[in-house]
Every structure is written in structure tokens, then in C-alpha cells.
Amino acid sequence: MMEKQIAEKLPEGQLLTKSGSKLPIKAYKRRWWIMFVFMYYAGINALQWIEYSSITAIVVKYYNVSTLAVDWTSTVFMVVYPILVIPASYLIDKKGVRLAVLVGCTGTFIGTAIKVLSIRGDMFWLVLVGNTIVSASCLVIVCLPPKLASLWFQANEVSTACSLGVFGSQMGSAIGFVLPPFLVHDHDNLEDIGSNLKVLCWVLAIAMIPPTVAVFLYFPDEPPLPPSNVQAVLRENKVQFDTKVFFLSIKDLFLNTGFVIHLCGYGINIAVFSAIGTLLSQFILSFFEGANQEAGFMGFILIIAGMIAMLAFGILLDKTHKYKEIALFNYFFAGVSILCLMFALKYRLKIMTYVACILVGIFTNAYMMVGFEFGMELTFPAEESTTSGIMLASSQILGAIFTISLGYINLWLGPFWALSTQVVMMFIGTIATAFVPNDLRRQEAFRRNSPEYSVRKASYHGSRPMFIE
After folding, report:
1. Average pLDDT over every residue of 119-140
2. What is the torsional sign of CA 116, 39, 391, 53?
3. Residue 74: which of 407, 318, 320, 389 has the closest Cα?
4. Which of 176, 274, 359, 437 is placed for a possible disulfide with 50 were both Cys, Cβ 3.0 to 4.6 Å?
5. Percent helix, strand, coil in the chain (nearest 5)?
6. Is the keyword Repressor in the record (predicted)?
7. Residue-range domains of the chain with CATH
8. What pTM does this model have?
9. What distance in Å separates the CA atoms of residue 424 and residue 419, rounded to the nearest whole number?
């Protein structure tokens, strides 16, 4: 009854309100350009997460620091995130997507450029400064894929578009495993290593110029017309941003029991992936001495396999809407894949190590997008950027703890037992995911095609319920 009273779906793709006015809907071709630009600079940002960890031994030699110090070039991404995630979400919700994109892209360019000046044996601190700025910029990058997907793409494209947004960061991480070992080689002469590092830093700084210029020239807050009925009604009922209500909406997220359970499971999964990714080169070199480039390539195929799986799972989610089932399947086999990696390394089976890396990528890496989308379903009509920000905050807090702990366990007990702790954590996360209620609120809104749900979302950050008149 409410559905008929509020609005009805028109065959030509418009929404008719009670007053008879039409809300036009259009999916612009430029949405693919918007997504490409985002993927490009998000990839360069993500590359720097693993930039130095993929050549740990060489960095240790050049800067005369410990392996744990090099681990901090990656760990800083996880430490900064929970500190600044609320301000980042606030910026996106209050000021819009364009400003968030400008901050993320410009910050990445500045942090990348600073590291060009770090090529000297006593300048490792400047490496950390540059990576800290890049990691702070990452805050307004990783929250954006679900937001961009909902703002620019049709209802049946949202999960696929979100996977593309995450795809950019994953591609950057993959390149981060192979580009540094390809450009930076171990030399007896430290000046030769410094020359290689300078080339690496200049390549990344120059690569950041095109997306930074593109973002300044064109990257709007939203398309002129909405791409879906939900977005149409959101615009029709747009309310002024309220800081108090913003923080109350965060409180509501933590009162959502299903989301809190999923938050714990998501945090564990991504933390395990971050920890293993950071130390993967050290693990592999412990069993295959001198295989620096092969270690980089194993990390590369791990990420590439995850990217392909991410796109496949995104399409599968759009087709089936089996969010919990796919998340649970993904989680369980992620634990199994790490178990395979443990034994492949222990018995020095190089081909099986490659296969295990592929499996880890497929099931662990791809979970980032699957978990994102499941979280959006559980928290509708909450703002996507806020939900994703909270989810990533939990993963980064745990990621920092897991990475630091894994580094010490690796030093004390070796890679096999270090990896075994991550297998245990993955199976704990699988059990947690099994207890998450299968509450698909967003899909119910799409299924019923009811503006009632859209209006609830539109008024979520307002002070009172609103309806289309």
C-alpha cells in the first residue's frame, strides 16, 4: 500500500511521485571515465603500501635499518587509518565526493614527491614521512568505491562498479610486488642501490601527475541526473548535513548487532591479508634464498588472482544477491588457502607455492569487495562512505596489530608457525561470519522498487522523516 501511495515505476525508467512529477533517471557514459581516473590514482596510492616491503633486504642494506623498521612503511597505513577515519568520513559526507577526491589525489602526489628527496643513507625518516602522507590520503580513497558506485551506476551495476573501484587499489598492490624488485637491484655499491631507488621514486611521482591534473579539471560531486530510483529519491529528499546526526548515525551502526559481528569478521580477514602481504617476501626468501624477483612475482600473482576473483564475485553478487553465502564460502577457503601456503613453503615446493599464492589471492584478497558489499546490505540506509570507513578502520587496527605481531613471531618461531596463527584467526572469522544475520536491506529496496526505502535513506542524515509530495 505504501509503495503505491508514494510512487510507481514507469516503463521508460522514471519515477512518478504522488504529485505527478517525474524524476528523470540516466546512467552517463562518463561514469566509466570517472571510475578509471579513480582507479588510476588509487592504484598508485596502494602500490606504496608494499613498495619498500617487497625489497626489504635491499632497503635494510641501503638505509642500515632493521626489517621491523621497513615493515613500518606498510604498517603506517594501518596505524594512521583508525585515527583519521572519522574525519575522513565526515569530509566525504559534508563536503562531497569532489573534495574528497581532490584531497586523496593531491595528498598522494605530495607524499610520493617527498620520497624523491629521501635517496640518502640517513634519510629513511623521510621515507616514513612520505608514506605517512600517502597513507593519510588513502583514507579518502578506500572509502569511495561504494559511494562512487551508488552515485554513478545503475542498480544492477552497483556491486560490479564497487569491485572495479577496489580493483584499482588491488592492481596497485600487485604492481607494488613486482615494480620495486624490477627497478631496484642488490648491489655491493650503495650508490648503485641509491640510483635504482631514485628511479623508482621518480617513476611514481611522474605517474601521479596525469590523475592529479584530471581530477582538478573534471571530477564532479555527482552526475547531473541520478542513475537509479534510489538515487533519484535521495536527491528529491536531500537534507542539509547535520554534524550531530552524523555522529548519531555512527552510533546506530554500532547498535546494529549483525553489522558489529560482520565488522569483527571483516577486520580479521583484511588484517590477515595485510599482515601476510607485508611479510610475504620475507616468508618466501626464508625458504627460497636469493629469489627476490620470484618473491615479487608470487606477490604479484596473489594480487592479480584476487583482482580477477573480485570482478567475478562482483558480477556473481549482482546476479544472485547471495551476500552472506558468498562471504562465508570466501572466508572458509581463505583459511584453507593459507594452510596450503604454509605446507608449500615448509616442503620448499616452488610450484605449489605459486598455486597457494593464487588461492590466497582468490579467496582472501577478493573478500575485501565481498565484505564491503555485505556490509552495505546490513547497514542500509546508512551512508556508504561511513559504513565502509568504519569497516576499514577495524581492519586497519587489527592489521597493524597482526603485522607487528607476525613480524615478531616470524623472528622468534619462523614463517611456518607465524602463518599458522593467521590460519587460526581466519577460522575464527569464518565462525563469526556464520552468525551474521542474512539481512539484505538494500536488495529489499531494489526488489520492491519502493521509494519508502529511498526516503528512509534520504532522511537518514536529516532531523525528521521525509516523504515525496
Report:
1. 89
2. negative
3. 407
4. 176
5. 80, 0, 20
6. no
7. 28-458 (1.20.1250.20)
8. 0.69
9. 9
